[in-house]
Amino acid sequence: MRVKSELPILKSQPIRISSSSWKVDYNTFVELDPKTLNEKWINFTEDLLQMSYIRDNIIWDIGWYPEANPLGEYGLELIKNLDWSNPIESYSTKDKVALLAKLEYLLWVVGQGYYN
Questions:
Q1: Is 20 strand, coil or helix?
Q2: Rounded Cα gap, residues 34 and 92, in angstroms
Q3: Are the C-beta atoms of 80 and 56 separated by less than 8 Å?
Q4: Model-level pTM?
Q5: What domain of life is recorded for the organism (predicted)?
Q6: Is the peptide bond before 14 cis (omega within 30 degrees of 0)?
C-alpha cells in the first residue's frame, strides 16, 4: 500500500518594494522562521534572494550562512558595480524580522539615490 504524502506549501516572503526599478534575479526566500524551525533546514541556502537596481547597477543579495545549518544566520550584502569583494553594506542576523526591516530600509535608501 502506498501512502501519499503531501509536501507543505511554502509561500514566498512578502517584501515591500518602493520602486519599480528593482528586478528580481532569483527568489527562494520563503515564510519560514528559523527560530521556530526544527526541520526543513534544506530551504536555508546561500542563495535565497537577489535583486538588481537597474538605474544604479546595485545588487542586494540575501543568503543563509553556513548553508542549511541551524546555527547559521541570514546575511545581506549590497553590491555596487559587481564588486563582490567590497560590499557597500553588509548585515547579518538570526532574526528574520530584523532582516526584513534592514532590507526594506536599504531598498528605500537606494531608491532615494544615496549610493549614486
A1: coil
A2: 14
A3: yes
A4: 0.74
A5: Bacteria
A6: no
Q: DSSP 3-state helix, strand, coil percentages of the chain (rounded to 5)?
A: 15, 30, 55
What phi and psi values does residue 115 have, to the nearest 5 degrees?
A: -105, 20
Cell of 39: 526541520
CB 76 within 8 A of CB 65: no
CB within 8 Å of 111: residues ≥ 6 apart = 18, 19, 21, 53
pLDDT > 70? residue 92: yes
Domain coordinates in residue numbering, the chain:
22-111
One-letter amino acid for residue 51 of the chain: M
Contact (Cβ atoms closer than 8 angstroms) between residue 62 and residue 74:
yes
Is residue 37 a contact partner of residue 43, using CB atoms and an 8 Å limit? Answer: no
Q: Could you read off the pLDDT of 16-75 as tens digits, one per residue?
A: 776 678 887 877 776 666 666 556 556 678 888 899 998 889 998 999 999 888 889 999
- Residue 14 pLDDT: 64
- Tell me the C-alpha distance between 3 and 48, whole Å: 32
Alpha-carbon gap, residue 10 to 13, rounded angstroms: 9
